[in-house]
Design a protein that fits this description.
heterodimer, A: 297 residues, alpha/beta, Rossmann fold, four-stranded antiparallel β-sheet, 35% helix, B: 354 residues, MetI-like fold, 2 domains
């Protein structure tokens, strides 16, 4: 391709080809989503990963990932299974260490301070960096209302007006109108999509600065997925969101930035990161291009 | 467009097309009759005798007929399926028969000894040989209730905390403790009794009382509660623990607010199994409690009666009256345990949704 660079006509065609890389309208979806300018919405420095590695026992699962997350943006992490996306986001709120054989290296800076520094209270970190899991997991012994407010009790936080907080969180998670008449019934009776939004409401109640979502829609039907995506767009103005997804349309729809992870047999690595519309229309790396166009993975 | 047979606006009647037809039922009845006939025939012709022979031959004959019928009608796989089903059903009957038989025997033999007095009077001025309408087993009921309750108060917290250590904290000592708990659950009850005798009675108290019996029961109950609770806690999905911790909870608060409530009904089952283990224990109580005949509410002083002790004494005595008293004691003990089971089940299921 490089030999054509001097010919303007060829060059133009090449550009056209590139915009057609994702004929399945992925690029089209992403193009409609203008990324927010970094720093335009200043709410602290945000979250920065610096040279993060992760291991499970002897297995090197993730190698040297450096990635900045700007306040008020949505970042999607895409890539095939086993490439370390979930492992990576679990290092961001110190859930990684929940696995007994886990180890890590590198720094994760939250508002400029390393969350792995000695003496840091891990429970405070997890309050600021909330998490929504792949499978909806409302607490079975609690009602809908108790589920939403569970974080306050778990972290022993005080709240002035619990009813307002309850309504606010359910409203932000897009669930209020569906459950407002049955707040005292058990969460287990809700549908899968409602349960997942209940889990989002639950993580919002402790007012996190960052929300990590680990494939939040992979167990849900398209209708519920759409609702969760709407919820994500509403939240993105006030919370920094990092979402792992296998659904590339979803990444294109909801995210401002996209990072592509890949493992070529060895530890997972971040291949490329950029504004979502660029990743889906003009990826710099051949492997990203192959992945987003569906040539593998 | 295809024609619809049923007009679009009528709802069809719900039916079960897969249910057994009347022809199937008649066939099954004929199989039964044939099996009964064969069992009579064989018992009459051969030297075999008694109920056991009838039942065994009936069962085998039925299985053979069922196998043959299914083989002819539906082929070899269906016949094997029928054979398997027949043996499993037979095994269930074999397992259930002794249980039902025990319950029936207790009721049949025990009811004669049941009269209102037994819950209001004790044996301090009555001998085992007096008419069963005299005296009662208040002292034994009170003793059993107090000792089991105290043993529960000790072993339920210890057992559940041990299980939490094994499943949640998973500390350095988890493996050896797990091994010890498993080994302890096989300890014969008399050993627990002898241990208390050697460790407490001989060196210190030099006396028999309720608390010593209770401690021995607690030793027996802890491993049962710990092991069952461990199994129950292991069933709680790791997701819930992660969710609790991800919300900023400490491990302790996550365990107490999320894991234990989610396991509540299972933990109550663990408690029930523990009580079931000790409620009828006799050996340590014979060794340690002195088995008094007077109602004693003080666990720390004086001999204390109990139902197992009373039953043991009644059978040992050997007269008609005393044996009837013993059966009545078994009856009361069974009813008490069943009431406890029912109450615990009710409490355990009351609030949990789903």
């Amino acid at each position: 391709m490089a030999e054509n660079e001097n010919e303007p006509i060829e060059n133009e065609r090449e550009n056209m080809d590139k915009t057609e890389i994702a004929p399945s309208s992925l690029a089209g979806i992403a193009a409609g989503h203008q990324p927010k300018t970094p720093g335009s919405n200043v709410m602290g420095v945000g979250l920065e990963a610096r040279g993060v590695h992760a291991w499970f026992g002897e297995k090197h699962a993730l190698s040297n990932v450096s990635l900045d997350f700007w306040p008020g943006t949505v970042t999607a992490l895409i890539g095939p299974s086993g490439c370390g996306k979930s492992t990576f986001i679990r290092t961001l709120n110190r859930m990684h260490e929940f696995i007994p054989t886990a180890a890590m290296a590198g720094e994760v800076l939250l508002n400029g301070e390393d969350i792995y520094a000695p003496g840091v209270d891990v429970t405070k970190i997890r309050l600021k960096v909330g998490m929504v899991f792949q499978k909806p997991n409302p607490f079975p012994s609690m009602t809908i209302a108790e589920n939403v407010l569970a974080g306050l009790k778990l972290a022993q936080l005080k709240s002035e007006n619990k009813d307002d907080l309850l309504e606010e969180c359910l409203e932000r998670a897009g669930l209020w109108s569906e459950v407002k008449d049955r707040l005292n019934t058990y969460g287990g009776a809700l549908s899968g999509g409602q349960q997942q939004r209940l889990c989002i409401a639950r993580s919002l109640a402790v007012r996190p600065q960052v929300l990590l979502m680990d494939e939040p829609c992979s167990a849900l039907d398209p209708g519920s997925t759409l609702k969760i995506e709407e919820t994500i767009s509403h939240l993105s103005s006030s919370v920094t969101i990092i979402i792992v997804t296998h659904n590339m349309q979803q990444a294109a729809r909801v995210s401002d930035y996209t990072a592509f992870f890949l493992s070529a047999g060895g530890p997972g690595q971040m291949v490329e990161v950029g504004p979502t519309n660029e990743i889906f229309s003009r990826p710099k790396d051949k492997r990203t291009e192959d992945y987003v166009t569906g040539r593998f993975g | 467009m295809s024609q619809t047979i049923v007009p679009a606006n009528t709802t069809p009647k719900p039916a079960k097309p897969w249910a057994a037809s009347s022809k199937d039922r008649i066939e099954l009845a004929l199989q039964f009759i044939a099996a009964i006939a064969i069992s009579y025939l064989i018992v009459a012709v051969t030297a075999m005798k008694g109920k056991l022979a009838y039942v065994t031959i009936f069962f085998l004959a039925f299985i053979v007929i069922d196998f043959a019928v299914n083989y002819i009608r539906r082929g070899a796989p269906a016949a094997k399926d029928a054979l398997f089903r027949g043996f499993v059903t037979g095994a269930v009957f074999v397992a259930v028969t002794p249980i039902v038989s025990i319950l029936l025997t207790v009721v049949v033999r025990g009811y004669k000894g049941i009269h209102p007095n037994i819950f209001f009077k004790d044996m301090h001025s009555t001998t085992l040989n007096d008419a069963v309408t005299q005296g009662g087993l208040l002292h034994a009921v009170i003793g059993t209730v107090l000792m089991v309750a105290f043993a529960m108060a000790i072993s339920v917290p210890i057992g559940i905390l041990t299980a939490i250590y094994l499943t949640e904290i998973k500390g350095r000592f988890a493996r050896p403790i797990k091994f010890l708990v498993q080994a302890m659950s096989g300890v014969p009850s008399i050993v627990a009794g002898l241990f208390i005798l050697a460790a407490i009675v001989y060196p210190f108290t030099k006396n028999y009382n309720g608390i010593e019996g209770s401690l021995a029961l607690a030793i027996l109950m802890i491993p049962t509660v710990a092991r069952t609770s461990e199994e129950v806690l292991l069933l709680i999905p790791g997701d819930l623990r992660e969710a609790g911790v991800a919300l900023g909870g400490t491990q302790w608060r996550t365990v107490m607010m999320v894991v234990v409530p989610a396991a509540k009904s299972g933990l109550i089952t663990a408690m029930i199994l523990g009580v079931a283990r000790i409620a009828g224990e006799t050996a340590p109580l014979v060794l340690l409690t002195g088995g008094g005949d007077t109602t004693n509410y003080n666990m720390f002083k004086g001999p204390m009666g109990s139902l197992p002790y009373y039953i043991w004494k009644g059978f040992n005595n050997g007269t008609d009256q005393s044996v009837t008293r013993a059966w009545a004691g078994i009856f009361v003990l069974l009813v008490m345990v069943l009431v406890l089971f029912g109450a615990a089940r009710y409490l355990g299921n009351r609030k949990v949704g789903k």
